[in-house]
Amino acid sequence: MRLAAALLALLLFAPAVAAAPKTPSKLRATAKSETTVLVTWYNRSPRASAQVAWRRVGAGKRRARKVRRPRVAKRFLHRGLEPGSLYRYRVRACRRGRCSKWSKPRRGGPLPKTVYPTPQPAPAPGGGATIGSCPIFPPDNPWNRDISAEPVDERSSAYVASIGAGLNLHPDFGSNPDYGLPYIVVPASQPKLPVAFSEPGESDPGPYPIPGNAPVEAGSDHHVLALQEGTCRLYELFAASFAGGAWSAYSGAVFDLRSNALRPDGWTSADAAGLPILPGLVRYDEVQAGAIRHALRFTVSETQRAYVHPATHFASDATDPNLPPMGLRLRLKASFATGSYSREVRVILEALKRYGMFVADNGSSWFITGASDSRWNDEALEDLKKIPGSAFEAVRSGPLHKP
Fold first, then answer.
1. Residue 402: inside a domain, yes or no?
2. Is position 10 within any domain?
3. Are residues 148 and 272 in the same domain?
4. Same domain, yes or no, for 60 and 194?
5. Among candidates 289, 287, 186, 297, which has minimal Cα distance to 231?
6. Domain check: are 58 and 174 in the same one?
7. Residue 3, SS3?
8. pLDDT tens figures, 381-403
């Protein structure tokens, strides 16, 4: 009797044996670079961790396993692979000491190693940057001027220190469309649509040849950039939205890309400094071609109440002379070695040595802006984050314009 009661108690109060988790599904192995594969899957068992197993095809039966500690794990970035090699991946879910069956194997491998030519210096003035059939300003425009030999500004050290000599560059663009600035090229026949401005006094009046489906920046600034073929005019909006067949924006500007004319002194544009945005973007096609032939655009956390041409507008009440003015131009020091960086980043760094970059807006310090493009190699762009602010110097750009 006592034995029966004891057995009954064990049955009633013993913890239930956890069921084995389900085998993950939808396993994928996607090449991300020459040395990296992204392994993803669908986890069918909540609160289960995962194990990924792989072996190189043709390398025998040896297997290495990577235990994924986070629960509901569903991705694993396999790094340090030999370019062009092929791997067979499997995954299983584990929970409370019990694991599912291994999934069906999926093959995948990193991209083959590509031999790129060494980035060459940009050609001499006369062959500047273009988009479509349009030049990005005349060859003698400040955006296209070689400033590698121009004198250093006497306040260079103070400017760099105020921006952050110990902070590093940051690519504010990549393959994720949530980062970077999109733009659109429209034909000369593109119909124009009305634009209502919150700041009409410093905006070029509409209508603008920007279609209602034009891409809008995903960030908080909601920029819209449109280049019109034929006329070679650049139309840019800040804080833009489209509704009811018309655009609304805080401010807007039109630039003739065949002219060196600046905006009126004191006027903003779609950028705080009164500068155009599109000419200063890092663009994928230029990087792949091996040379960027113009200055770039970047942001700093705080500026002073002044600007330097080609900027025409300030966006600060601070009068500290050690803060950079809008339009200040910085360049990467000629002595900075670039040989150890990724091919993409080397192209950008050579442009920063030759053409430099303009202070264009208030924002995170040392953030360089690029055009949105799903083809960017994010892993290669990570090298930009290794470049310290102390590697830069300010170029003597011209007189300060103050209110």
1. no
2. no
3. yes
4. no
5. 186
6. no
7. helix
8. 999 999 999 999 999 988 999 97
Residue where the block lists tokens 């070695």: 337
Is 8 contained in some domain? no
The string of pLDDT tens digits covering residues 283-298 is 999 999 999 999 999 9
The tokens describing 208, both together, are 């603008």
Per-residue pLDDT, 82: 80
Give the global pTM. 0.71
Contact between residue 57 and residue 70 where contact means Cβ atoms under 8 Å apart: no
Tell me the C-alpha distance between 398 and 393, whole Å: 15
CA distance 237 to 208: 10
- Using CA atoms, how far apart are residues 50 and 377, in angstroms rounded to an integer? 27
Q: What is the pLDDT of residue 55?
A: 84
Query: Are residues 80 and 143 located together in one domain of the fold?
Result: no
Q: Whole-angstrom Cα distance, residue 75 to residue 77?
A: 7
CA distance 41 to 29: 9
CA 388 vs CA 159, 171, 221: distances in Å: 14, 13, 27
Residues 6+ apart with CB under 8 A from 172: 179, 180, 299, 364, 367, 368, 369, 370
The rounded distance, in Å, linking the Cα atoms of 144 and 146 is: 7
User: In residues, how long is the chain?
Assistant: 403
Residue listed under structure tokens 């890309």:
257
Alpha helices in 89-200 (DSSP H): 156-163
Same structural domain, 268 and 380: yes
- In-domain check, residue 117: no
**179 is in which domain, residue-wise?**
130-394
Q: Which residues pair with 346 in a beta bridge?
A: none
Residues 96 and 134 in one domain: no
- Say which DSSP state 137 is in: S
Residues 167 and 365: beta-carbon distance below 8 Å:
yes
Query: DSSP secondary-structure letter at 369?
Result: E
Sequence-distant (≥ 6) Cβ neighbours of residue 178 within 8 angstroms: 218, 219
Q: Which residues pair with 24 in a beta bridge?
A: none
CB neighbourhood size of 123 (10 A): 11
Q: How many domains does the chain have?
A: 2
Question: Do 99 and 156 lie in a common domain?
Answer: no
What number is the average pLDDT over the span 51-71?
Answer: 62
Which CATH number goes with the domain that contains 31?
A: 2.60.40.10
Same domain for 149 and 77:
no
